[in-house]
Amino acid sequence: MARTEELGTNEPAQGANLPISPEDGKADLHTHTTYSDGALSPQELVQKAAAAGISVLAVTDHDHVGAIDEATAAGRELGITVVPGAELSVSLAGKDLHILAYFIDPTNRRFLDYLAFFRGERLRRAERIVQKLNTLNIPLKLDTVLEYAGIGAVGRPHIASALMEEGHVGSFHEAFDRFIGIGGPAYETKFQLQPEEAFRLVTASGGLSFLAHPGRYLSEQELLELIKMGLDGIEVTHPSHSDQQRAYYRSIVHQYFLLESGGSDFHGGRKHDDELFGQVTIPLHVVETMRSRLFSQ
Fold it and tell me: For position 275, what pLDDT does the model report?
């Protein structure tokens, strides 16, 4: 069944007419803006992509699609195709996983309602973390954290920035190591979807679901569970992946007729990952294969 039929419309799904030429250029399919925990506005991110020679850029903010319209408009001016996306959190056997959604319809009401719910849960989590920090005699205020979050979905990076700027820690990473990282005294779990629900949500919005930066923490059996649930592909190329890991996940992609993606996971700012931007990319034919699979169903 075609994705457009699942959506109950005869109109092309989001991104069906993207001007992608598979012969030249490069793509980065994992980036963040100020609408989540990135340092750059959507327009600034697209401008940076243009300067780095990127032809296709996916904007994949955590639980937010607010950047897509601005990024798309900037992309039109600069000759860059912007793939609408998002990054969702799911849980499998107690493990935190991220799902990259590509080619979604950012106006899909069900998808938007879910994202609004997730952002509300993020805020409540931030409140709990701040309360724990206060019990540790760290007088951080939630309003301070929200100033760092700005228009974006609040997350632990914003708390880390606030802790550092107020002098409670010496570095961004120290905030995670001492307080808010997994196992830390102020850590709080976040609300997460079950993978099947996330896949259904992405499919209903016309998109494809990819497992983000799986690294070393998933067994092949767990990967098979996700594939059976409806996973479309795997982020093979990521800064955290070694050559051996890339080869392994590419073999999984071929074996199970999945799609592959890749990108820099660019945030900017205190992530100090500017040097990766424009370096961790995939060829455009990979994006064309994704699009062909989506719109030929």
Answer: 87
pLDDT of 246 reads 96
Would you call 62 helix, strand, or coil by DSSP?
strand
- Among 138, 283, 117, 84, residue whose Cα is nearest residue 191: 117
Residue ranges of the chain whose pLDDT lies below 50: 1-17, 20-22
Domains of the chain plus CATH, in order, are 3-108+194-295 (3.20.20.140), 116-180 (1.10.150.650)
Q: What's residue 4's pLDDT?
A: 34
**What's the DSSP call for residue 184?**
S
pLDDT of the residue at 7? 31
Answer yes or no: pTM beyond 0.70: yes
What pLDDT, on the 0 to 100 scale, is given for residue 24? 64
Let me know: does 233 contact 259? Beta carbons within 8 Å: yes
Do residues 211 and 92 touch, judged by C-beta distance below 8 A? no
Residue 296 has a pLDDT of 67
| DSSP-assigned letter for residue 171 | S
Instruction: Count CB-CB contacts under 10 A for residue 277.
Output: 23
Spatial separation of the C-alpha atoms in residues 240 and 7, rounded to whole Å: 35
Q: What's 179's DSSP letter?
A: I
Residue 152 DSSP label: S
Query: What is the full DSSP assignment across 85-125?
Result: EEEEEEEETTEEEEEEEES--TT-HHHHHHHHHHHHHHHHH
pLDDT confidence of residue 151: 82
Q: DSSP letter string over 195-254?
A: HHHHHHHHHHTT-EEEE---TTS--HHHHHHHHHHT--EEEEE-TT--HHHHHHHHHHHH
